[in-house]
Amino acid sequence: MLDDLELKVFYNTLFSRRDVRSQFSGEEMDKKVLGRILLAAHSAPSVGMSQPWDFVLVTDPDIRSRFKDHVYKEREAYEASLEQDRAENFKRIKIEGIMESSLGVVVTYDPHRGAPSVLGRHAIDDAGLYSVCLAIENLWLAATAEGIGVGWVSFYREEFLGELLGIPKHVRPIAWLCVGPVTHFEKVPDLERFSWQSRRPIEPFLRHNRYESQSDLDQVVYLPKDGFDL
Amino acid sequence: MLDDLELKVFYNTLFSRRDVRSQFSGEEMDKKVLGRILLAAHSAPSVGMSQPWDFVLVTDPDIRSRFKDHVYKEREAYEASLEQDRAENFKRIKIEGIMESSLGVVVTYDPHRGAPSVLGRHAIDDAGLYSVCLAIENLWLAATAEGIGVGWVSFYREEFLGELLGIPKHVRPIAWLCVGPVTHFEKVPDLERFSWQSRRPIEPFLRHNRYESQSDLDQVVYLPKDGFDL
């Protein structure tokens, strides 16, 4: 359990984490820092301790360039699906830093690891997938603590990325993370800065005992109204 | 970016996180602490800033008891699927702290939030599901920083939990988290203490440019060999 000062440092790190697109400096990653954030990812909880993740570190410019071309095609497909004013807004939003970041970290899910009979997966098979996401968030927060930016790119087809990196058919790519030093972290998320979507308050998403019930939540949980008081 | 001392506190928190089953004290949760860890969850990254999660705080003993009965039936079903020596080992392992923890936090996924045309979900629909998991890891780490234990129960059928809490059909329960003060955090994960599965070293899971290639990784990443040096 941390003391109040340490807690503030911890929460400040958590709240300052951003999904970085535009602020990568392109400097080379410090190898020790990269090692630490990968160990943070690898220390995530996993169902039945299956640790079903792998991390493909992509530095090759040609692979990154081919991935970026693919992402731009998917970007166009998405843009074409939007109504006009939404599409105009979307044009202003940068969705990736594939070439500008120091490297890509592709995180994959191998459902065979620890199988068969992974403890905790017999009723919920997706629990393995969930574990990989927990590892990604560990990586993201550790990177933030180190002053390193992370941007999750999800404008791609899994089949394309799988073939690009020679990923076996049974293994699923879950994320392409753009990773590297940044000039700064923005205070406000990009999608909010560009008026795409604002962060919602938490209150409507808290419920008590039953999904439809919020009646006596103030007896159960206290939400700081002005800033984040400890 | 944190200084070296702050980084140690951050990483120590991340590495001391455990999946808690047996160490819940049953004390009531401090309402402010609960508020903080829920805000940490709600501050997770989400695809297209959809924030597709909800948090059902379950304190009702009857609901918890019915959930526990269901979990024990699923436990038996899993045990029956194991070979004899594995089943004998499994009998020793506690898989939940539903009644002993201070409350359950059921985290759900609502794919309708922000839909249609959630930015980043057109090619990978599961990205919304991934966001919910990132929120869960934020909650878990914040709880650890606060000295609060979290245990993810996954021995249940989603349909059962959905009906138990009156969750709408289109919303998916992702986790039942047992949450509350603990007597202590174990140094070694339960599944390792009970010889079910040991943590694997990270090296085989690091790859470079292509999934099959680990050839020149030491030029890209440095993994501390003895402890976690900064």
TrEMBL record, chains A, B:
Key words, A-Z: Flavoprotein, FMN, Oxidoreductase
All copies of domain Nitroreductase, residue ranges: 16-180
SUPFAM superfamilies on file: FMN-dependent nitroreductase-like (SSF55469)
Any GO molecular function: oxidoreductase activity
Pfam families tied to this protein: Nitroreductase
Protein name in UniProt: Cob(II)yrinic acid a,c-diamide reductase
Species classification: Bacteria, Bacillati, Actinomycetota, Acidimicrobiia, Acidimicrobiales
